[in-house]
Specification:
Elements (H helix, E strand, L loop, with lengths): L3 H6 L3 E5 L1 H15 L3 E5 L1 H5 L3 H10 L4 E4 L2 H10 L6 E4 L8 H6 L2 E5 L2 H10 L6 E6 L12 H13 L3 E7 L10 H17 L7 E2 L3 H6 L8 E4 L23 E6 L2 E5 L4 E2 L5 E2 L4 E6 L15 E4 L2 E6 L7 E5 L8 E8 L2 E3 L1 H7 L4 H7 L5 E4 L1
Helix pairs in contact: 2-4, 8-9
């Protein structure tokens, strides 16, 4: 974990992560969905929060199942977590030639093709067993067995093999967090029809992503849920769907004023001289820019200084940006770009909405130059 003093000694822009809030959100969504088991999605460095710290924190409250996208992500987790009682699922498509790596690090790949299983079996030595997550494509269109026949064939192959073991079966819903109920219902119908036809026990199922666990828990089996965004405290259905539960905010983005000066009438700043002062005003430079994930299109976005709203002005550059000030502040003053300062707050959803994107993209755009501080 990184202490605040380390940040101040290097580059004074950082992300604060509230691990207790993540644990709270995990327990809250399990109660809400009526789940007995949680698969925590910690891919993309736990959505930018720091996969190792997040998984260790969730492990402390009893979570034993984690999902990532890549083999490299899985290897990192395996190195930092107990080896005997933690399951690590690979959600993304994996090259079958890497089966030896999956075996070595006990990673369970999502597989949606019979041919993959057949090739993998040839690469597994006698006495070795590879855990398989059977992926079912009910309508996402990315990967997975795409028919009743395909599901049956893959399940039969796993059952008949001494080198393959079924550890789970899942699908991923395309419209769980929006208002397209008809498409969602079609996906549910496909999954139940195909999987029940193959007589695959419910103990292997994990259907509910964050959207399903939040808004559709009454429609599907939620004994096991597989969630990401809700762990990190934001609404995956924003702005269309209100949250049915009150999660705790997890992430704050902060910086410190690096320079202050008074901009005179008629003076401009930053590339393109797109901002020109109409009156004499104080401005400050912050050591954060689009290389850190503070997107170039965020010019005009509000920030919080001393509990007051100010705004980003001029073009955001690779390493720096400029904000307005209502008065002269000392160099080193903390500026909140996402989070709470006094009675005012800039939420992740506010930030994403201004950027015309979703919170997922914002979080995973924050670069490694931003140190993570864990509360």
């Amino acid at each position: 974990m990184i202490e605040k003093n380390d940040v101040l000694m290097t580059r004074p822009s950082w992300i604060e992560v509230d691990l207790k809030a993540i644990n709270y959100n995990a327990q809250l969504i399990m109660r809400h969905a009526g789940a007995n088991r949680l698969i925590a999605v910690v891919k993309a460095n736990a959505y930018g929060h720091g996969a190792v710290a997040v998984t260790k924190s969730l492990y402390d409250i009893g979570v034993r199942d984690f999902a990532v996208a890549t083999i490299d992500e899985g290897i990192v987790l395996r190195k930092h977590l107990p080896k005997n009682n933690v399951n690590i699922i690979l959600l993304g498509v994996q090259d079958v030639s890497h089966v030896r790596l999956m075996l070595t690090h006990r990673l369970s790949p999502a597989v949606g093709e019979l041919e993959w299983l057949q090739e993998a079996e040839q690469l597994i030595d006698d006495g070795e067993i590879l855990d398989i997550q059977l992926a079912v494509d009910t309508g996402m269109g990315r990967m997975g067995a795409h028919s009743e026949t395909a599901v049956q064939a893959m399940y039969d192959k796993i059952l008949s093999s001494t080198k393959l073991n079924l550890s789970g079966i899942f699908t991923h819903f395309a419209t769980a967090d929006d208002e397209n109920q008809n498409y969602y219902d079609e996906q549910i119908d496909n999954f139940y029809k195909w999987v029940q036809s193959a007589n695959i026990p419910k103990s292997y199922w994990h259907l509910a992503n964050s959207g399903s666990a939040l808004w559709h828990y009454h429609q599907i089996n939620t004994d096991t849920i597989r969630v990401g965004s809700v762990l990190y405290g934001y609404n995956p259905g924003a702005p269309d769907l209100p949250m049915p539960i009150i999660t705790k905010n997890v992430l704050s983005l902060k910086s410190r004023i690096g320079a202050v000066h008074k901009l005179q009438v008629g003076e401009s700043l930053s590339y393109g001289a797109t901002y020109t002062a109409q009156y004499s005003q104080w401005v400050a430079t912050l050591p954060i820019g689009y290389a850190d994930g503070y997107l170039r299109r965020m010019t005009g976005m509000k920030v919080l200084v001393g509990g007051q709203e100010e705004h980003v002005i001029g073009r955001i550059t690779m390493d720096q940006l400029v904000i307005t000030l209502d008065r002269q502040y000392p160099v080193g003053t903390i500026v909140t770009l996402i989070g709470r300062d006094g009675d005012k707050e800039i939420t992740l959803e506010n930030f994403a909405d201004y950027a015309h994107t979703i919170p997922h993209e914002i979080l995973t755009s924050f670069g490694q130059r931003l140190s993570r501080i864990y509360k």
